[in-house]
Amino acid sequence: PEITAASDESVECDGMGNMDALDAWLMNHGGATATDNCDDDAGLSLTWSNDFEGLSDDCGATGSATVTFTVTDCAGNSSASTAVFTIQDNTAPAIAAEASIMKDCGEYSADDAYGSFAEDCGMGSFTWVDAPVSGGCITPVGAYLRTYTATDDCGNTSTAEQIITLVDGVAPVIDMEAADQTVECDGMGNMDALNAWLDSKGGASATDNCSNIEWSSDFEGLSDDCGATGSVTVIFTATDDCDNASSTTATFTIEDTTNPDITAASDETVECDGMGNMDALNGWLNNNGGATASDVCSGVTWSNDFEGLSDDCGATGSATVTFTATDDCGNASSVSATFTIEDTTAPVFDEYIPTTVVECTDGDGDDLNYLPLTAQDDCSDVTYTVESMCMSGGCLWTIMRIWTATDDCGNSTTVEQYLMLSDTTAPEVTAPADYTVSADAMDCSADISEAAAGSPEYSDNCGDTDCWGANSLTVSYEDGAWEYTCMGDDDNTEGTRTLTRTWYVEDRCGNIGEATQTITVTDDTAPMGSVEGDSVACASYDAATEYGSHSESDNCDSNVAVSWEQTAIVNVEGAGCYQVERTYTFTDDCGNASHAVQTITVFDDVAPEINGEIEVEIECSAYPDNNIYITASDDCGEVTIAFMDTEVSGGCVQPVGMYMRMYTVTDECGNASTFEQFLRLVDTTAPELTIPADYTIECDQDIIYDDASATDNCD
User: Fold this and answer.
1) Per-residue pLDDT averaged across 542-559, rounded?
2) Residues contacting residue 639 through CB under 8 Å, at least 6 positions apart
């Protein structure tokens, strides 16, 4: 057929593959036409086909395809024409963004888009850049010029500008409320504290979501209270750049809570005149007890709470008075002092004998009726007390008696009286029971102190304590030499021992009583001994030889006797591997003994010895052969022999002419030796031949040759 050329076609991308346009172009054979010299005359139709398979994958939803259109007549003759279908993107994305918008400063973000874009042929990208510009109430930046850029997948680009003005409709936040402040009046208006409080906005603080803050207050002055005190309630206001404001309120107060300064009043004491001492009392009250007072803010007023004197002994008495100074604001300070009428004159004792010698058992020094004294007082009756105490003097001691005479007002006089004691009788002594104690298990020492072995019982006609309660008798003892009583196994016998203790009791006048006690220290602790085991090769072990080591000690005996005997053979594994138990006995001089068991491990770590030829020849007909072609021995016991044969090359016998035999020899303790030996198979017997039997045939018959056969003991 004759064909006109197909035409290329380009369409703008619709994002959906431009299917209508593509299908129409294909159905129209790309605009190609054809005629045929036969088919047309015969009224036959031509057949069209194409090789379209799909579009290329270009940017976005674009692509292209080169298509060959073929026309064929009824006889199979064909012609072709090629054209290109192209989907292209020449259209930039469309941007939708208001030219000017307002955004709350707290909501604005350079990362948020305030516009959008549309693209028909793919995804594309949407970016923007913000630049500060003048405008708005917020400082330092109140507005931004935003430039949007939209780019599709094929590189087509659009731009748009947008003004973003920041607005602030939120008042500052008071983070810390203003705090009330109270100061003590300084008499000068407390200006430093007031100004500092105002300057610090009462301690308030605030933050704003967008801009800086300016502070102001409505302070005009303080109220006029007592003295130089007063107060004011102040409103502190925080205002941002856009005139949004928040407030906090607090009160500044000057108060006077300080009491007047006051000096102490003084106590006054007068000797009793029997008439109430009125002149001295009234003068003391009128002078506020000698106290003075002052106040920084006002004058002071004095008062006191005197009501009368107490009724004490005789004409004596006292009153504790509180003097109070009060300022104009009601603050008060007080001091107290006491006015006292007293009687300080003591009674006087009559004459007496100051020192008297008496027997230790004559009387009680604290008894008022024993050698009594008397006294006189001009104002009241007299009462007596006597207290006795020890002091040095005489062979025993001297009792000093302190007599006290006291009047109704407690005035007293004391004198001393001395009673010297004597004694001529020795104390009576009973020794403690004889004492036996075990020697210390560590060092053979023993506690034979008085606390352990006991104390004597004793008494004295004058008692065992003096008038202070201290012991008036001296107790002591003297120990004799130790006598050791054990038999011992050497010249230095140690351990159990005895001694005699003599007790003495002496009184203050040198009279002495005595008694004796026997003390025995017994060694009943066995020595401590230990043994270290040992390991001995079986070939070296001797039952009469001592192995390992031993150590021993005793709390008393410095030379412990040691002996041992074999007591058991255990854990026998074989003739050369077992354990021997020996029992050691450790004995001290007193026959105390302990035991320890020693374990000697007899071991065999030497493998058996093997002797034999490296190669042995045997008749092939004798193999397999279980004969042993080596000898083996061991120093400590019997051995067992095992072997394994492995085929190796060599020899004349086929298919196997030689074996490597590996011997393993093991003793009773598991020690093993190995030995390699080669068994060469030999063949000394000739094969046995079987010849076919003789036979006779006619001359006209074919000769048949039978084969001979042979057998061999090896092959």
Assistant:
1) 92
2) 608, 632, 633, 665, 666, 667, 668
Instruction: Give 186-230 as a 3 state SS string.
Output: CCCCCHHHHHHHHHCHHHCEEECCCCCEEEEECCCCCCCCCCCCE
Mean pLDDT (whole number) for 559-588: 92
Residue 88: strand pairing partners: 12
Is the C-alpha dihedral spanning 104, 109, 110, 114 positive or negative?
A: negative
DSSP class of residue 452?
H
**CA–CA separation, 109 and 615 (whole Å):** 100
- The answer to pTM > 0.85 is no
Determine contact, residues 683/652, Cβ cutoff 8 Å.
yes
Please state the φ and ψ torsions of residue 248, each to the nearest 5 degrees. -145, 145
pLDDT, residue 684, reads 80
Say which amino acid occupies 265.
A
Bond from prior residue into 347 cis (ω within 30 degrees of 0)? no
131/134 Cα distance (integer angstroms)? 10
Residue 647: helix, strand or coil by DSSP? strand
**Which three-class secondary structure state does DSSP give residue 501?**
strand
Q: Which of 468, 454, 471, 469 is nearest to 505 (CA)?
A: 471
pLDDT band at 380 (very low <50, low <70, confident <90, very high): confident
How far apart, in whole angstroms, are the C-alpha atoms of residue 527 and residue 552?
7
- 689: three-class secondary structure by DSSP: strand
Q: Which residue has the tokens 């309660």?
A: 469
- The pLDDT of residue 306 is above 90: yes
Task: At 80, list the tokens.
Answer: 């072709």
Closest to 98 (Cα-Cα) out of 115, 122, 75 = 115
Compute CA distances 330 → 53, 259, 285, 333, 552, whole Å. 111, 9, 23, 10, 95
The radius of gyration of the chain's CA atoms, rounded to the nearest angstrom, is 68
Judged by average pLDDT, the poorest of 63-72, 141-150, 682-691 is 682-691
- Mean pLDDT within 183-200: 92
Instruction: With beta carbons less than 8 A apart as the criterion, state whether 318 and 339 touch.
Output: yes
The span from the first CA to the last CA of the chain, in angstroms, equals: 90
Residue type, 452: A
Is pLDDT above 70 for 362?
Answer: yes
